[in-house]
Write a structure and sequence with these properties.
Elements: H1 3-9, H2 12-17, E1 20-23, H3 36-43, H4 47-52, E2 55-57, H5 62-75, E3 83-86, H6 99-104, H7 108-124, E4 129-130, H8 154-169, E5 181-187, H9 206-213, H10 215-222, E6 227-230, E7 234-235, E8 238-239, H11 244-254, E9 260-262, H12 271-274, H13 280-290, E10 295-296, H14 300-310, H15 316-332, H16 345-351, H17 355-368, E11 370-374, E12 386-389, H18 414-422, E13 427-430, H19 440-451, E14 455-461, H20 480-490, E15 496-501, E16 517-520, H21 528-536, E17 603-610, E18 614-616, E19 620-629, E20 635-645, E21 656-665, E22 670-678, E23 684-685, E24 691-692, E25 696-703, E26 710-717
Parallel strand pairs: 1-2, 1-10, 2-3, 3-4, 4-5, 5-6, 6-9, 12-13, 12-14, 14-15, 15-16, 18-26
Antiparallel strand pairs: 7-8, 11-16, 17-19, 19-22, 20-21, 20-25, 23-24, 25-26
Helix pairs in contact: 7-8, 7-17, 8-10, 11-13, 13-14, 17-21, 18-21
The structure holds beta-D-glucopyranose (BGC).
Length: 718
């Protein structure tokens, strides 16, 4: 297809209509349709605009998608196919753990595989583009969307951003119908809303933005990610969706991104309540000038762009460029030849929720749970009587947000997993409480059931709506009623193992001290119960490590490992008792640091060695360390390497993750692990935002988490 020619054949009306994205209910071929007098009329959208529109939000299911496309092509004058887009975030119907959990696996191959499977299930259902990966860096667990990202570290987030893009897109999007185009989001810095309140203001210096928040988006684009979605928030006073500096100057000019840029849901029109546009016309002008190609779910573009072009306020060229980018994506996906692409009802039956896909979901769930505490209670013995108590004991709400195609009925619940492993005769169950309320009867039944058991396993947590979009909480403890349930159980003087189902690092007061064993299972997805049972009984040795710090309490938030020193660090040799940077009532450190996670075996780190004590700019240093499994069972360990630049032009973090390796060790086995460090890894943004390294001394840390490391140093010579 000659796209330039096609563009020339389009009228201005057809062009600007190509830029709107609406949900399926607006389309004649959809199974559930909106009334012409309903949302369409409210938004001022006409039939003609829909016939000319370019993409659909939330379409899935081969039958429906095929139908929508067919009817559309019959009515679209130039026969331009629709792009079908949807949020396929951590699985389509086979649901993988939430991305924060996937990050905790530190296994980018499995992450890639999860995206590949999600893409395959979505593609046969007719989806062309997924609104993923979400790679926003996060430091505030009050924000509900921390569950959608891989955590607080720019390097780790970048590694996973690339893995997800590879998994979704593969390397031949045009011919491989099992793949979908990826859309990295939310550009930019959506993960840093003030106070953790969703959609709230983001204020940070450009250096902070570039150093910590931008790398993961950039990594996704370097991997060939086709699309970018804007963020809802402001960045330095300008909403991201109308932010020319972010989109035209940085994304397009500096990074050379020439793919499609889409607004987040309704974000163009939200320029009005943000207070940077007086009406829809001004919102449209600002967004298109700033670089947004597709307006999602509001109609500022379709209603105003023609007039804005006629009056000279918007150059037609900008609209042409936006349309061309959209047409190019359609071309790349092969839609002009085959507008139905992968949609295939027969394949849907064969591919979706296949045994192979469920196995992959199981494996990732088993590798992403993090063992936080174990006072010689885990693994459980199979012949011990277990009382399984709590609102998640027999609850399918373990998929987490953004699993709209997933079904709770398909989920392996914790009870199912444990009963299958230990035998139903060994497991007694009582709900004990709902998530946020309980009756006296529920409590007394739980006490009765627990009385007969050797060990109490509590399945606690947040329901999925308590995290995710618009799921911010100011109190990140478990709901009071569950804390009360723990208190009641504690009175029975039996060992307690708590399993947590939740979408954010929690304040674990009332759980941590009271539990002898504590397993953070996040929202583990479709195979969650099976994975949890295998971990509790030791058929799988826990290997997940946190990628977001667990605060000691919410007053410490934000607390993250790669922070700066102060002029008065608490642990300096000459520190005063009072006039240091500290809280009077809690430690400075989080309860569990980045990188932390226990195992059923123990690893010893020895002989951290650098191949040289200096690094020349064009050379490299080999870092080696010996890691030994000194326990009695096989296990996987995440060996983490951090660096500190001791004197910089601007302050530098106390530690920065630069590399890691996940290794497997048999009992008694020792491996020597090698890393390579080069000058490039030591660069950072200077005062004038130049990105370079400084000569001088650096510390290298290698260890099992960001706090317990062996240390060496070297000098960078330039
Ligand atoms: C979310 C996006 C999502 C979009 C489309 C918005 O509310 O912020 O992450 O992709 O909806 O569903």
């Amino acid at each position: 297809m000659n796209l330039r020619q096609l563009l020339n054949d389009m009228t201005l009306d057809e062009k600007k209509d190509q830029l709107i994205q609406l949900a399926t209910l607006f389309y004649a071929g959809a199974e559930t349709q909106g009334e012409i007098t309903g949302p369409m009329e409210d938004m001022g959208i006409t039939e003609e605009m829909i016939q000319n529109s370019g993409s659909v939000l939330g379409a899935s299911g081969a039958k429906e998608v095929t139908n929508i496309q067919k009817v559309h092509l019959e009515n679209n004058r130039l026969g331009i196919p629709l792009l079908m887009m949807a949020d396929i975030v951590h699985g389509f119907k086979t649901i993988f753990p939430v991305p924060l959990a996937i990050g905790c696996s530190w296994d980018e191959k499995l992450a890639e595989r999860s995206a590949e499977i999600a893409a395959k299930e979505a593609a046969v259902s007719g989806v062309h583009v997924t609104f993923a990966p979400m790679v926003d860096l996060v430091r505030d667990p009050r924000w509900g969307r921390v569950m959608e990202t891989t955590g607080e570290d720019p390097y780790l987030n970048s590694v996973f951003a690339k893995a997800f893009v590879r998994g979704f897109q593969g390397n031949d999007l045009t011919n491989d119908k099992n793949k979908v185009a990826a859309c990295v989001k939310h550009f930019a810095a959506y993960g840093a809303p003030e106070g953790g309140r969703d959609y709230n203001t983001v204020n940070m210096s450009e250096r902070e933005l570039r150093e910590n928040y931008l790398p993961a988006y950039k990594a996704a684009l370097d991997e060939g990610c086709e699309m970018v979605m804007t963020a809802f928030n402001t960045v330095d006073g300008v909403p991201a969706t109308g932010n020319k500096k972010l989109m035209r100057d940085l994304l397009r000019e500096e990074w050379g991104f020439d793919g499609v840029m889409i607004s987040d849901w309704g974000a163009v029109k939200e320029l009005i309540p943000h207070g940077v546009a007086g009406d829809e016309s001004e919102a449209a002008r600002k967004a298109i000038n700033a670089g947004v190609d597709i307006e999602m779910m509001t109609a500022c573009y379709v209603k105003n762009l023609k007039e804005l072009v006629d009056s000279g306020a918007v150059k037609e060229e900008l609209i042409d460029e936006a349309v061309l980018r959209i047409l190019e994506l359609k071309q790349k996906l092969g839609l002009f030849e085959n507008p139905y692409r992968g949609a295939d009802e027969q394949l849907e039956k064969e591919v979706i929720m296949s045994t192979e896909h469920r196995e992959a979901a199981y494996e990732l769930a088993a590798k992403s749970c993090v063992l936080l505490k174990n006072e010689e209670i885990l693994p459980l013995q199979k012949d011990k009587k277990i009382a399984l108590i709590g609102p998640f004991a027999n609850n399918g709400d373990i998929l987490g947000q953004w699993s709209w195609q997933g079904s709770k009925e398909d989920a392996v619940k914790i009870y199912d997993g444990i009963a299958q492993k230990a035998g139903a005769d060994n497991v007694f169950m009582a709900q004990g409480s709902d998530i946020e309320s309980a009756t006296e009867d529920q409590f007394s039944e739980a006490v009765k059931v627990a009385n007969d058991a050797d060990v109490i396993v509590l399945a606690l947590g947040e329901k999925s709506e308590m995290s995710g979009e618009a799921g911010s909480r100011s109190n990140i403890c478990l709901p009071d009623v569950q804390l009360k349930l723990i208190e009641e159980m504690k009175k029975l003087n039996k060992p307690i193992v708590s399993v947590l189902i939740n979408g954010r690092p929690l304040d674990l007061h009332g759980v941590y001290e009271e539990s002898d064993g504590l397993l953070e299972a996040w929202f583990p997805g479709t195979e969650g119960g099976r994975a949890i049972a295998d971990l509790l009984y030791g058929d799988v040795n826990p290997s997940g490590r946190l990628t977001m710090s667990f605060p000691y309490n919410v007053g410490q938030v934000p607390v993250y490992y790669n922070h700066y020193n102060t002029g008065r660090p608490k642990d300096a040799p000459d520190a005063q008792e009072r006039y240091v940077s500290q809280y009077l009532d809690v430690p400075n450190e989080p309860l569990f640091p980045f990188g932390f996670g226990l195992s059923y075996t123990k690893y010893q780190y020895n002989d951290l060695t650098l191949s040289k004590d200096y690094l020349a700019a064009d050379d490299e240093i080999k870092v080696s360390v010996k890691v030994k499994n000194v326990g009695s069972i096989k296990g996987e360990e995440v060996v983490q390497l951090y660096v500190r630049d001791l004197v910089g032009e601007v302050v530098r973090p106390l530690k920065e993750l630069k590399a890691y390796q996940k290794i497997e060790l048999n009992p008694g086995e020792e491996q020597e692990i090698f890393f390579t460090l080069t000058e490039e890894q030591l660069r950072y943004y200077h005062e004038d935002l130049s990105f370079e390294s400084d000569a001088g001394k650096f510390n290298v840390f290698v260890g099992p988490n960001s706090q317990e490391c062996l240390e060496q140093s070297f000098e960078l010579r330039k």
